[in-house]
Amino acid sequence: MRLILLGPPGAGKGTQAKRLKEKFNIPQVSTGDILRDAIKDKTELGNKAKEYMDEGRLVPDDIVVGLIKQRIVESDCKKGFILDGFPRNMAQAVQLSETLEKMSQNIDSVVEIEVNAKMLIDRLTGRMTCSSCGAMFHEKNHPPKVSGICDSCGSNDLYKRPDDNKETIMKRFEVYEQETAPLKGFYRKMGILKTTGGDGTLDDVFSRVCGLVT
Ligand code: AP5
Ligand code: MG
Predict the structure, then answer these.
(1) What is the pLDDT of residue 146?
(2) d(Cα 95, Cα 156) in Å, to the nearest integer?
(3) Least C-beta-crowded within 10 Å: which of 158, 170, 191, 202?
(4) Cα gap 65→91, rounded to integer Å
């Protein structure tokens, strides 16, 4: 199964991708996570990406498309994958289609998760991520069982993403509307766009997403 999760910042793409990964035993491929790891490791890629991410702008296409092309040929992607945060504009979508065609593969479903702006801001400003295992929490909606401690791995290093401040969030919304939202039409024409509301509990959204892809 090859899936794309589409939706604005804070819609729950990463949260749902982690659950889908467990259920279907296919990897989550998140360009945001790959870039954040590169920043953490202070690689050349990380240094380049940081200036864009801190401002809420898209990292140049050649960089991200290159990352994806390398990642989806790895052996764990043979059975399928969940793309989280890619593609982000038409150029990326077209390059993805061309790459998959050469591999005689195709995307089965594009799941769009819709959430209103007020809820998105609340989710992003309250998000906490575990720096060790990447598990995600929310101060109010989904707090860790013990304050400051990751439920999954026990780490005490839960951090707030630097791009989750109000100003950068607004820039990310603008970029989503201008560059990413047009992908809905692209995938609708291909007959693979499926849309669901991202409101309700994590379990509610998960069961709706599963209902759309199985
Ligand atoms: P990226 O990391 O992809 O961020 P994003 O698209 O802005 O989306 P988020 O990760 O913020 O939100 P999400 O939908 O994953 O929500 P989550 O599950 O965490 O990209 C970051 C940057 O990297 C970009 O700005 C760009 O610079 C660069 N980049 C990445 N990909 C790129 C590409 N392809 N091309 C160019 N540049 C690229 O949930 C959010 C919070 O809500 C969490 O706290 C969670 O616990 C909570 N939550 C989730 N679901 C629910 C629910 N149902 N109820 C209550 N709370 C919930
Ligand atoms: Mg995410």
Answers:
(1) 96
(2) 40
(3) 191
(4) 9
Ligand nearest the Cα atom of residue 198: 1
Q: Would you state the pLDDT for residue 158?
A: 96
Q: Residue 32 C-alpha to ligand 2 middle, in angstroms?
A: 7
Q: Which domains does the chain have, with CATH numbers?
A: 2-116+178-213 (3.40.50.300)
What is the band of 71 on the pLDDT scale with cuts at 50, 70, 90? very high
Amino acid at 184: K
Amino acid in the structure at residue 44: E
Rounded to the nearest 10 degrees, what angle do helices 61-71 and 44-55 cross at? 120
Nearest 5 degrees, angle CA 144-CA 150-CA 155? 150
Q: How far apart are CA 212 and CA 210, in angstroms?
A: 5
Q: What is the Cα–Cα distance from 41 to 47, expressed in whole angstroms?
A: 9
Pair of tokens at residue 17: 């991708």
Sign of CA dihedral 186, 67, 171, 132: positive
How would residue 139 be classed by pLDDT, with cut points 50, 70 and 90? very high
> Which of 4, 6, 13, 159 should be mutated for ligand 1, with most atoms under 8 A from CB?
13
Helix 44-55 crosses helix 166-175 at what angle (to 10 degrees)?
A: 90
